């Protein structure tokens, strides 16, 4: 059924862009040429049986999966592995995907905060491939794309915060970044496990200004404490004077 409206076609295009892997997975048909080449490959395997064993059986590690393309089409089912699996030589192409958690060091980003302060912030992100077939079919290089997305999300998230919030609410900022990156990388088959803010570096002039402010605050508190001590001492002297005034013999006895 064709779409009759412009809005419907636009929605279909967006769904097709985000669910590219689903479209590939559902298209499993092949032409006569595909079947003929598959038959020739199978016949070649039978004719050169002892030798083809070295080329038809592949292995992947426990932490890996193999995405197989047969004559350019994605093979039906899920990714192969771990262990031993069979392929047709000459017509099958294998792409291995590592499922282990990867630590991504986000380079330091120069960020202008909401209160117009320039800071350099770097972070670390931990992610893994949750869907190998989507990671291969939906994006050309998921590692580079995830890194660029993490840098952009770091700048966008911290650009809406004040300096005090960046210094005190690191855990909340990390959770916000994790949710944003995880939602964006879900069509790529990437699952973000953790995001942490490593360091926030301030300009030298701002560091000196904050140090002077902290020193002035400490001096003010010290003066207040000294004044409170003087006040308590004067009250004690007043009480002692009242006791002596009531009983003049107390001074002689002391």
From TrEMBL:
Keyword field: Membrane, Transmembrane, Transmembrane helix
Transmembrane segments: 35-57
Cellular compartments per GO CC: plasma membrane
Residue span, Band domain: 55-214
Annotated InterPro entries: Band-7_stomatin-like, Band_7, Band_7/SPFH_dom_sf, Stomatin_HflK_fam
Designated name of the protein: Band 7 domain-containing protein
Residue runs in coiled coils: none
Subcellular location: Membrane
Superkingdom per UniProt: Eukaryota
Keyword Nucleotide-binding applies: no
Family the entry assigns: Belongs to the band 7/mec-2 family.
